[in-house]
Design goal:
Structural class: mainly beta
Helix content: under 10%
Number of helices: 4
Number of strands: 23
Shape: globular
Length: 330
């Protein structure tokens, strides 16, 4: 995760002014419960809903995974996901266990994890990995990670850099969608990135989309709610985007929706957010998670003085924030 924000120097004409994201009742919330908290959370995937409990997977870019339970749309609880000894040994070779995105393929019930590459030899480590859960322990333990070999490999690796990889990952019934975090120059990210689309049967990359004309600067989270439909996060522009494709994988519509941060318990107060993950539940609610940008996450003293002690400590401990949002069309 590289957080160098691009300063907007021009207006984007693709923004859908009639679309708004409204915070659901009781949200946003801190991703913590008692003494359990997540750390640098950069991926979220909705699993299912049963008996008024919604279940999610969370990925932290420090190399941890969690189960998140939201009961009655309000109460949060967590369980750690462990790694088998074999997986621990496999991951120990990585310069950093840089988990950036996690997603569920609803058509196969398979889960995938995107890991960024870090030096030395970052291209050896960047990749998309199929997650194998221990059948005896369910979501309690991962006992295998299988790297997906996309072809042509040269195209998959062409634009990745140290600590810059595919922070957006989504899967529908036919395709993988791989969203590159962005193109970084010496001081900032540029106003464009790419989406690679690969056929699921062959893992062949069959489409490359440049996002400049779509007004998308960075991609830090993707989710597909149905075939040929893609939702995502443009972290640097602080927008949620939605793309529709035709059968030839051409973009047929593009919408950009403004995102406004809010401090839990203080909806009228904002902070410097770095939204990096997105998922959609069975009722079409949108969930976003903030991966704290530590340099700017803690508000200035004049704001902290207006907050309660628990909120201040949560900021100072860099606890991530989760949003539940309803899409409103005016």
């Amino acid at each position: 995760m590289t957080k160098i924000f691009f300063l907007l120097l021009f207006s984007i004409t693709i923004i859908a002014q009639d679309y708004q994201l409204k915070n659901a009742e009781g949200f946003p919330k801190w991703l913590s419960k008692d003494n359990y908290l997540t750390d640098q959370t950069s991926g979220i995937a909705f699993i299912n809903s049963e008996n008024h409990i919604k279940k999610f997977l969370l990925a932290d870019d420090i190399g941890k995974l969690h189960l998140l339970f939201i009961t009655n749309d309000s109460l949060l609880s967590f369980e750690p996901i462990n790694f088998s000894k074999e997986v621990e040994q496999y991951l120990s070779k990585f310069p950093k266990k840089d988990f950036e995105e996690i997603t569920l393929d609803n058509s196969t019930n398979l889960f995938y994890l995107s890991i960024e590459g870090n030096d030395p030899n970052h291209k050896n480590w960047v990749g998309i990995y199929k997650i194998n859960f221990n059948p005896e322990l369910g979501f309690g333990e991962i006992n295998g990670l299988e790297k997906i070999d996309f072809t042509p490999n040269e195209l998959f690796l062409k634009d990745v850099k140290n600590n810059i990889g595919y922070e957006g990952l989504a899967v529908d019934s036919n395709y993988f969608y791989l969203g590159l975090e962005g193109f970084q120059n010496d001081t900032a990210f540029e106003a464009e990135t790419i989406i690679l689309i690969a056929d699921k049967k062959s893992n062949e990359i069959i489409k490359k989309i440049n996002t400049k004309e779509l007004g998308i600067h960075t991609i830090c989270g993707l989710v597909s709610d149905k075939p040929y439909s893609l939702w995502g996060i443009d972290r640097n522009s602080r927008k949620v985007f939605h793309l529709n494709f035709d059968s030839k994988l051409n973009v047929t519509s593009s919408k950009l929706i403004n995102f406004v941060s809010a401090i839990p318990g203080y909806k009228e107060k904002s902070y410097v957010s770095a939204i990096e993950s997105i998922t959609i539940d069975n009722e079409n609610n949108i969930y976003l998670v903030d991966d704290p940008w530590k340099r700017f996450y803690v508000p200035p003293e004049k704001t902290l003085n207006k907050l309660d002690e628990i909120t201040i400590n949560n900021f100072k401990n860099f606890i991530p924030i989760i949003y539940k949002l309803n899409l409103k069309i005016d």
